[in-house]
């Protein structure tokens, strides 16, 4: 004689008892003060440089950048600048977040670069990642968070869990361009002490020009606030520190939209944890802000050449209304965009007129970053010859 099936009431009671026991054994999973995040990348595509028979022995230099929607052309120009700035001995892996619809076009452009004569000795890997990150725990995300922020401002917060097997990464905004050596920037990790988890440049070089310390009442990273355009992240230490949870906790307590910005959250995080911050030389994040007045100049860029430049925002579509500084920055961008890796003479054909233009004494000299741009380009040309 078969046993009678359990009724709905019995099943409900059993489930309730199991839940009660589970809550008692693991109370931290149900605490309102502890948030557990589980993320995985829903889709990815790996495209490798075809010109290397063997993988270099050293661990890859890992670079992360968002390139969604209309930012993809900027991101691909940045990828080309990384090609130009990398050395044959380097193994560089670029993680590019962009929508699935862009993958075929991006793969074709990347393969065109890697198969060209100019980059035949370079070893680069492109990993295309779907920005629609899947969260298994949506209900525990802070307000205004959906778990699909990989192309938005929260990429920095989520990266330690998005890339669980990576030890470190350089995060760049898509409007950045690499002029200096990729290896030289990566070597900044070795200069961090045992407590430091992130390397980033200051927002300003002098306290008198800082937004946070001059106008805002919000907390900021000492001494003058930081700019998140270029970020070196020690992902192993950040995971151990619970960085994702800490940063999102700061954002969850925001009372307005401005406090949700990644720069604001990072500044508050390092206000609370100043010993975890490593300051990058400003030459690795040269911006228009450095070029207007003598007192704002970036000395490391002036001495060594610009390592990374940030293109000015909101001016790419208005070339006639650009300032002298913006025109100079975009002339470097145009050089990289027009660089033809299939043409052996492309560097001479493009760089010589560019450097002559930047060195033209008859043009307005209000851009104090010209010397930095010229030294950065000269170093790049010297490395290629």
Structural account:
The protein is 36% helix and 15% strand. The chain has 385 residues and is of the alpha/beta class. The protein has an 8-stranded mixed β-sheet with strand order 2-5-4-3-7-10-9-11, sandwiched between helices. Helix 4 runs antiparallel to helix 8, helix 11 (324-338) runs antiparallel to helix 12 (346-358) and helix 12 (346-358) packs antiparallel against helix 13 (370-384). The radius of gyration is 24 Å and the shape is globular. The protein starts with 7 loop residues before the first helix and ends with a helix. Mean pLDDT is 77; it is low at 23-42 and 136-148. The chain crosses the membrane at residues 12-39. It is found in: Membrane. InterPro entries: Glycosyltransferase_8, Nucleotide-diphossugar_trans.
**Shape verdict:** globular
Biggest β-sheet: strands ordered side by side in the sheet: 2-5-4-3-7-10-9-11
Q: For this structure, what is the CATH class of the largest domain?
A: Alpha Beta
Number of strands: 12
Q: Per CATH, what is the topology of the largest domain?
A: Spore Coat Polysaccharide Biosynthesis Protein SpsA, Chain A
The CATH architecture of the largest domain is Alpha-Beta Complex
Oligomer: single chain
Q: What's the total helix number?
A: 13
Query: What is the gyration radius calculated from CA atoms?
Result: 24 Å
Count of spatially separate domains = 2
Q: Largest sheet, if any?
A: 8 strands, mixed
- Helix content bin: 25-40%
Arithmetic mean pLDDT: 77
- The N- to C-terminal Cα distance equals 89 Å
Low-pLDDT stretches: 23-42, 136-148
Protein name: Glucoside xylosyltransferase 2
Keywords: Glycosyltransferase, Membrane, Signal-anchor, Transferase, Transmembrane, Transmembrane helix
Membrane topology: Single-pass type II membrane protein
Family: Belongs to the glycosyltransferase 8 family.
């Amino acid at each position: 004689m078969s046993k009678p099936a359990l009724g709905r009431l019995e099943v409900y009671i059993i489930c309730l008892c199991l839940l009660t026991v589970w809550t008692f054994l693991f109370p931290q999973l149900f605490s309102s003060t502890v948030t557990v995040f589980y993320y995985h990348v829903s889709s990815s595509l790996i495209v490798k440089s075809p010109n290397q028979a063997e993988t270099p022995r050293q661990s890859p230099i890992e670079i992360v950048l968002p390139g969604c929607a209309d930012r993809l052309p900027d991101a691909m120009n940045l990828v080309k600048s990384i090609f130009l700035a990398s050395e044959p001995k380097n193994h560089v892996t670029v993680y590019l977040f962009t929508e699935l619809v862009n993958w075929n076009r991006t793969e074709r452009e990347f393969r065109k670069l890697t198969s060209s004569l100019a980059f035949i000795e370079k070893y680069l890997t492109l990993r295309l990642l779907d920005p629609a990150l899947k969260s298994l725990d949506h209900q525990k995300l802070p307000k205004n968070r959906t778990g699909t922020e990989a192309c938005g401002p929260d990429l920095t917060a989520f990266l330690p869990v998005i890339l669980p097997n990576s030890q470190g990464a350089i995060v760049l905004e898509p409007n950045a361009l690499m002029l200096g050596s990729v290896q030289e920037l990566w070597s900044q990790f070795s200069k961090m002490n045992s407590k430091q988890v992130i390397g980033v440049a200051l927002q300003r070089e002098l306290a008198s020009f800082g937004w946070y310390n001059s106008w805002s009442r919000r907390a900021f990273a000492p001494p003058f606030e930081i700019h998140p355009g270029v970020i070196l992240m020690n992902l192993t230490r950040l995971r151990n520190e619970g960085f994702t949870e800490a940063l999102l906790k700061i954002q969850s307590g925001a009372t307005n939209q401005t406090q949700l910005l990644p720069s604001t959250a990072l500044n508050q995080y390092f206000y609370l944890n100043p010993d975890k911050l490593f300051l990058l030389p400003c030459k690795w994040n040269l911006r228009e802000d450095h070029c207007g007045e003598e007192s704002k100049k970036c000395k490391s860029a002036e001495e060594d050449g610009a390592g990374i430049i940030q293109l000015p925002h909101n001016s790419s579509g208005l070339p006639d209304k650009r300032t002298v500084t913006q025109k100079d920055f975009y002339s470097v961008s145009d050089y990289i965009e027009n660089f033809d890796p299939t043409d052996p003479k492309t560097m001479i054909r493009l760089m010589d007129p560019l450097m002559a233009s930047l060195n033209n004494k008859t043009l307005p000299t209000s851009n104090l970053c010209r010397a930095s741009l010229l030294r950065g380009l000269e170093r790049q040309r010297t490395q290629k010859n």
